[in-house]
Structures are given as C-alpha cells and as structure tokens.
Design a protein that fits this description.
The complex is a heterodimer of chains A (447) and B (429). Chain A has 18 helices and no strands. With 447 residues, chain A is mainly alpha-helical. By secondary structure, chain B is mainly alpha-helical. A 3-stranded mixed β-sheet of chain B has the order 2-1-3. Chain B has a two-stranded antiparallel ribbon with strand order 4-5. Classes of the chains: A mainly alpha (447), B mainly alpha (429). At the A-B interface, helix 9, helix 10, helix 13, helix 14 and helix 15 of A face helix 7, helix 14 and helix 16 of B. Chain A: InterPro entries: ABC_transp_permease.
Chain lengths: 447, 429
C-alpha cells in the first residue's frame, strides 16, 4: 500500500471534529486523496501517516537502517572473534544466559567506547563539572571527529561532484596525494608571512590536484578513455611519485634517515580552533565553505547546470549545444582541486610533513562518503561527519575495548553496500515501497 | 555556440589523415630512441661491458656487450624502428614486429648502460634468474587477470580483484596453519574468493548496483575484514593462526634437467603450472566451446543471447563465481608460494595491476597472461636494477605498468575495447 492510496475513511475518522456540511466533507476527502504529504494533514492520522512515511523506504529510513544492519553485523564479528564469547557459546544449551550476556557485554562495551570516542564521554563531562579536568577533555571526542571529518568533506565532494557530472572519480586518492605533494613543496620551500603563506599553500594544493584531475578528464574528453581505468592507474603513479619525491635532496628532512620531508613552515599550517591540545583546525570550516561553494556551483551556476545535464544524459546535453568534452574536463579539474585541497588539509592540519602515506586513505574514503551523501553537497558533509565520527570513535574502541580500528572499514563498507542496494534493506525490514527512485545513487553503466 | 560542437562525441575520435596510429607510434619511438641513445649512452660505462649469463648466478655460458656502444646502438635501433614506422607505406603490416623490436631494444639499451655502470663484480645479469623472477611475480597477476577476463567477458565488471586476492591470502594463511596443510590453504583461499565473487554477483545481478562502485566497496570490506581478523587472531598468536608452510616445488622429471629452459619452465610449485594451464584452457574455452560462445554473447549482447534461449543471469552468476575461485587461489599463492605470513594489505595493489593486465591484454585470456608476464618482468627488472645499485629510481619502474595501461586505453598505441555489455545489468523485457 502506498501513501497516495490511503482510504478515504482516514480523513473523516471518528477522532476528527464532526463535519457540518457535505461540501466540506467532500473537500476533506479530496484533500486526503490529493496529498500524500503527511505535513499537510493535522490530527492523529498525521501521526499514523508519519509512521507510515517513516516505515516506507525513504532516504533517511534506509540510511538509518543500513547503519543499524552494519552495526549488527559488526557486533556478530566482535562476538565471533572474542574467545570469551565463543567459549560461552560452547555450552550454549547448558546456560544460554551466559552466552547472551557475554555477547552483550562485548558488543555494548565496544560500541559504547565508539560513541564515547566520537561524540562525548560522560565521565569527562562530569569531571569538568566537578572541576577535575578542563573542558577541553570533554570536547576532545568532538574535536577528533571534526579533525577526521575535514579532509573527508573535500574528497567526498571531489567524488560527488564528478558523480553528478556522470563521471566516477576513483582518482581522488591520487589527486589528494599530488595536491599534498605540491602544497608540501610550497609549504617548506617558500618562507612567507602568516596568512599569505597559508593561502599560497592551499592554492598550490588545489592547483596540484586540479592538474592531476585534468589528465583523466582530458583523456576522457579527447579519446574516450574510461575515467575509472585511468584514475585507478593515476592513483598508483601518484603514490610512487610521492615516495620518490620525499627522499630527494632538498625535500627529505636532513635530520632524519627515514622517508619524510622537511616540516612545513609554521606560517603555512592551518590554525587550531581550540585550546588544550585539541587537534581540530580551520580545515573543517574550509570544508563547510567548500560545501556551500559546491552547492552553489551545482545548483546555481551555468557550469553546474551543464554538468548535471551532461551527467544525466550526455547526448541530450550535446544536442542542446553544450560541450560535453569541455564539461568532462572542467568537472575533473574542479574535482581534482577539491581532492587536492583534501590532501592539503591533512598535510597542513595534522601531518605537518610529507610521508609516503601522508594522506592515508582519504581518497578512497571519499568514495564511500560521496555514495552515502548521495552525491549532494550537504549530504556529503553529513556523511563525512558520520565517517569522521566512526574513525575518531574507532581509535578509542581500539585502545579501550581492544577491538581493532579496522572494524570501522567493515562498518563503512557495509553501510554503503546496503545503501547502494536499497531494495535489499527494504526486503530485510519489510519496508513499504517508497519513493525509491530517489534512492538510486547512480545509474549502473559500463566501462 | 556553433553547431560544430555537435561533433564532440566523447567516444568518437576523429583521426587526422596523416597522423595514423603507425605514424604517431613511430614519432614516439624516434624520440624515445634518441633519448635512450643519449641518456643511457652517457650513463653507461665506456670501458666496461655488460655480461648476460645464461644461468641463475655468475657462472655458465654468457655473452657480453660493450656498455656505451651497446646502449647507443640499441637506442639507435629503436630510432630506426620509429623511422620505418613513419616512412613505410606498408607500416601497418609490420606494426607489431617493429614495436616489439623497439621495446626489446629499449630494454637492452637500458640494461647495457646500467649493468656496465654497476660496480666491479656486479657487471652481469643472471638471465635465468631474472626470467624466473618475472614469472614468479607475474603469477598472482595472471590469476587476477584471468578472474577479471572471466567476469567481464560475461558482462560483470570486477574491480574487486584486489579484495579477492587479499581475502584469499588471509584465508589461505589461516586455514593452512590450522590444518597444517598447504592444500587446505589453497582450497580455503579459493573459497574466500568465491565468497567475494558471490557478493559481487548477488549485488550486481540481483540488485543491479553499479559494478564499479560495488567493486570499490568490496575492496574496503575485504581490507577491513582481513585487518580486523588479523588483529584479533594473528597478531597475538602467529604460531596458531599465521604460520603457513610453503608449497612444494614439483620439478618435472627429465624436462626439469634441461639447461636454461628447465629452471625457467619446469621447476615450479603446483599453482604456477595450474594458472598457466587454466589460462590456456579458458582461452580455448572462450573461443572454441559452446560455453565460451554463450559467455561472450552474454557479455556483448545479452538481449540477443536471451532471445535464443541462453540463461543470461545464470551464466553470469556461474562465471563470476568461477572467477572468484581463480582470484582466491591467486590470493593463496601470495602466502603459500614462499610460506610467507599474512600481513595487512599484503596484496599491495596487485589486484589493480591485474586489472591493468586484463585491459592491456584486451579482455583476452592469452593477452592478459602476456601482459601479466610483461608487468612481472618490469618488477623483476626493478629488483635486479636496485640489486646492482642502479641510479634509476625504482619508483619510476614501478609506475611503468600503470603508465603503459593509460597509454593503451587512451588509444595512443592502438585502442582497447571492453565487451559491449560489460557492467550493464540485464533486465529481461
């Protein structure tokens, strides 16, 4: 049963005020038939409708249930790999309570620490209220979450923007690496006053990423080489280039024997936003600004319109007089600049010097962020916050509960897997068919 | 905007009349050859010579090439090949041969210069040894590339080869140790690959999820899963969970005793023989059997295949699962070949090079095997060059497979084309 087919009776249910004239009654009935939107109808039926809407397969419900399903599977993994729990299951039929209690303890403790590490630790808050520790300790989890979020916003946008233009940018990793490398060269190569140096370095990072994004965009536009193949290859080329770069004379830190570059100038680092050794830095604000900027670009600018048109149907866009080749190239340049900024954020926000793995995995994580954010700028921000929180919480989970932080990768992958297949989530939870059209993140297509 | 914009089809390349594929390649080769003659000539040692020994060490039959002369001469051979491609009107017919000669000459130019410039006592190349290494390095790539070919010929993109190798390696290490048998490890590795293949098939075919996205997600899943299990079981207790034995080497009687060819071709463990035999079987299967014709037709035009009564989805499930088995066994090779312990992320991008090999081999099993051998040779060359202290950065040689693949897909040297229905879910109706 779908919302539009709500029986007429619900509009004139006994709870409603009695209807005086037939005219009003028919109007009400007409309203009920016309509007599937729960907000428009007052009274208790609206509540039912709200629940009905909630339990139909809409974006929010599917996302929340995907998260839930992923956590359940994660919990099963925790139990399976815990000797205490598996031992309790060894005598399950003698004392089933033991096994269930042991499972509950292991899983709840792990996820409690995930939460405490990502959002707030009640002990630190009471400690602050009692004057035992500073407020910074209470804010530490949030600071960590935002620190992990910042670069993911950029790489997530880099992938999402390309998605909207009909391109799958697997190369955010390589673009972030090249962005960070160029930013690093400017960061320790030049010596400029504060602010100026930071701006120069950020711009350098964006240009580095943009140049590296240009290559697959241009190849796609000119020769039709599939961007997935070229960007996968370019990721590895970037990786080897960086590992070569950081051991060159003039780049490698002369005081170190391992593969690490000179540290970036103090003036080029992203300023911290809080005291008390909290790591959160300006990068998260830049990320929000980027979200606003990309939102404007996509929805309000001419280029954004062309980008979306080409993404939806390149043939129609071409017929309408748009240059598909120029749009592909432009999209990849902007996506590359965003990913380059992501790499630069890591370098200037937390790392401080180039190493072979300076950008970590932010490019690949950007893919999952963009998918979870469904290719929309604000969705990307929310998704990046979720994955940033998982990363931050994962660290605490590892040190306090002994659950390897790798579980976060499993959770991330499962969440996105379920989101990519809304039909699966719908059948698991027996959701009613909703506006699933909106749930398809991308249209499946070939090389 | 003018109407000329309409011509900008992204998949149509307008070939200018004069700059045909042969002429463009020729121009590139001329530049490369001159560059090699100058750069490698300068890097080479003028008085020393490069010695190529046909054995696994410094002893045995050998031939020597004077370093600088050789480097310049081979560079010029590349140039000549390029000029021929530029000038000959029949260049099209000789294209493969000339490019092949040029590539071999380029490698020899590099070798002459680097070997002669090595320090005293290291100025030789054990050819048998390097060839054996090339084959050894290429084996996981061949496994991965064959898995890719099987999937994509049937219309399912498989980016998740990396994940299949990784999970296969993990599973092989774990079960080979627990069961104290390498063969159990091989089976467990294959089973893990099948499991990933099943997920790929299920989501790609049943739920029609974009297959490239799916592959990326599966890689993240496998990375997370193996990392998690590694920390939970193997990190603390490697003796019980992560001490796999080594696959025994089976030397083929009589043939293994042949000098030069014996050690190169007939002294390997079972998986190496297995993968090359399977590769050739798949090649003949694809192009010579009913199964192959059906697989290819499902990959090229599923609607037509369905019309004549081929079960499109069933065949796709079947082939993706078999591909998973192959890739998983490839993963087990990573640990069982030398009895290595499993380590986090030990596939180290081999799945992506395998993908590159498949593309470079033009979605053809034998082509993919040859491409994997070429990429294996590049890796062996890099190991050899760093062993003799060559100044050429190893990172640039590591980039080579990826660069070659980009050149191939960009159509600079001939064009590669995927099966027509690759990655497109089939909806009946």
């Amino acid at each position: 049963m779908i919302l539009g087919q709500e029986p007429e009776g619900s509009a004139s249910s006994p709870d409603k005020a009695p209807v005086s004239t037939g005219q009003v009654a028919s109007e009400t009935a007409a309203t009920a038939l016309r509007t599937p939107d729960p907000d428009e109808v007052g009274g208790p039926p609206a509540g039912n409708r709200f629940i009905a809407a909630l339990w139909s397969a809409n974006t929010v419900t599917v996302t929340v249930l995907s998260l839930f399903l992923a956590m359940v599977i994660g919990g099963v993994l925790i139990c399976l790999s815990d000797p205490t729990v598996t031992a309790a299951y060894g005598y399950f039929f003698a004392a089933p309570g033991d096994a269930i209690a042991a499972s509950w303890t292991a899983v709840s403790e792990a996820y409690a620490n995930l939460f405490k590490g990502a959002i707030v630790d009640p002990a630190a808050v009471t400690g602050w209220l009692d004057g035992e520790n500073t407020i910074w300790l209470a804010l530490y989890p949030l600071s960590e979450t935002l620190t992990y979020t910042a670069p993911l916003v950029f790489t997530g946008l880099a992938v999402a923007l390309a998605f909207r233009g009909g391109l799958f940018n697997i190369g955010a990793q390589g673009q972030a690496i090249i962005g960070a490398a160029v930013a690093g060269l400017v960061g320790f190569g030049l010596h400029l006053p504060p602010v100026v140096h930071l701006v120069f370095t950020l711009v350098a990072g964006a240009i580095g990423g943009a140049a590296y994004g240009f290559v697959p965009g241009f190849l796609k536009a000119r020769t039709g080489a599939h961007e997935v193949i070229t960007t996968i290859m370019l990721n590895y080329i970037a990786l080897y280039f960086l590992s070569w770069l950081i051991v060159q004379d003039g780049v490698q830190d002369p005081n170190r024997t391992d593969a690490i570059s000179k540290p970036v100038d103090e003036n080029a680092l992203l300023p911290k936003l809080a005291g008390g050794d909290l790591r959160v830095h300006l990068g998260i604000l830049l990320g929000v600004a980027a979200v606003v900027g990309v939102g404007w670009l996509l929805n309000r600018s001419t280029f954004g319109f062309e980008l979306r048109a080409v993404g939806l149907n390149p043939d129609a866009a071409r017929t309408a007089g748009m240059s598909v080749a120029a749009t592909y190239t432009g999209t990849m340049v902007i996506a590359g600049a965003l990913a380059g900024l992501g790499g630069t954020t890591v370098l200037l926000g937390t790392a401080g010097a180039l190493t072979g793995s300076v950008v970590g995995n932010i490019g690949f994580d950007g893919i999952t962020v963009a998918l979870l954010g469904r290719g929309k700028p604000w969705g990307v921000l929310l998704a990046a916050l979720l994955f940033g929180a998982l990363r931050a919480g994962g660290n605490r989970m590892q040190s306090f509960s002994g659950i390897p932080v790798d579980l976060v990768d499993v959770l991330t992958a499962l969440i996105v897997l379920f989101i990519a297949a809304p039909a699966l989530v719908r059948s698991v939870f027996r959701l009613r068919a909703g506006r699933t059209g909106r749930l398809e993140t991308t249209v499946a297509k070939g090389w | 905007m003018t109407t000329t914009v309409v011509d900008e089809a992204p998949h149509v390349v307008v070939r200018p009349g004069f700059w045909t594929r042969e002429r463009r390649t020729g121009a590139v080769l001329v530049v490369l050859g001159l560059l090699a003659a100058v750069v490698f000539g300068l890097l080479a040692h003028a008085d020393a010579s490069a010695k190529f020994v046909l054995s696994e060490n410094a002893e045995g039959p050998s031939f020597s090439i004077p370093g600088r002369t050789g480097a310049i001469a081979f560079g010029l051979i590349v140039t000549v090949a390029g000029v021929l491609l530029l000038a000959l009107s029949t260049a099209k017919r000789w294209f493969g041969l000339l490019v092949g000669v040029a590539v071999v000459a380029l490698v020899f130019s590099l070798l002459c210069s680097q070997i002669s410039a090595a320090s005293e006592g290291l100025q030789f190349m054990p050819v048998v040894n390097v060839t054996r290494q090339s084959i050894g390095y290429s084996v996981p790539l061949v496994f991965g590339a064959l898995a890719g070919v099987l999937c994509e010929r049937t219309g399912v993109i498989n980016v998740a080869i990396e994940g299949q190798l990784l999970l296969g390696a993990f599973s092989a290490a774990m079960f080979a140790t627990i069961a104290a048998s390498v063969w159990v490890g091989v089976i467990a590795g294959g089973a893990a690959g099948v499991a990933v293949g099943a997920l790929l098939a299920f989501f790609a075919i049943r739920y029609r999820v974009d297959q490239v996205i799916l592959g990326v997600i599966l890689i993240v899943l496998c990375t997370g899963l193996t990392g998690f299990m590694f920390e939970r079981f193997m990190a603390s207790d490697a003796e019980t969970y992560n001490a796999p034995a080594q696959l025994p080497v089976w030397e083929i009687p009589v043939l293994g005793g042949i000098p030069v060819l014996g050690p190169i071709l007939f002294r390997w463990n079972a998986l190496v023989y297995f993968v090359f035999i399977v590769g050739i079987l798949i090649h003949f299967g694809l192009f010579g059997t009913r199964w192959g014709l059906r697989t290819r037709s499902v990959g090229e035009h599923p609607t037509a295949a369905d019309t004549v009564g081929i079960r499109v989805l069933g065949l796709r499930y079947w082939n993706v699962l078999v591909a998973g088995l192959i890739a998983g066994i490839g993963g087990s090779y990573l640990v069982l070949d030398a009895g290595f312990q499993f380590s986090k992320g030990m596939s180290a991008g081999k799945g992506f090079i395998a993908l590159a090999a498949m593309i470079f081999g033009r979605w053809n099993p034998v082509g993919a095997m040859l491409a994997a051998l070429l990429f294996g040779f590049v890796e062996a060359l890099q190991t050899f060059l760093s062993a003799i202290g060559s100044p050429i950065p190893s990172q640039f040689l590591s980039m080579a497979p990826y660069l070659i693949t980009i050149v191939a897909v960009a159509g600079l040297v001939g064009r590669v084309r995927a099966p027509a229905a690759d990655g497109k879910p089939y909806v009946k109706g």
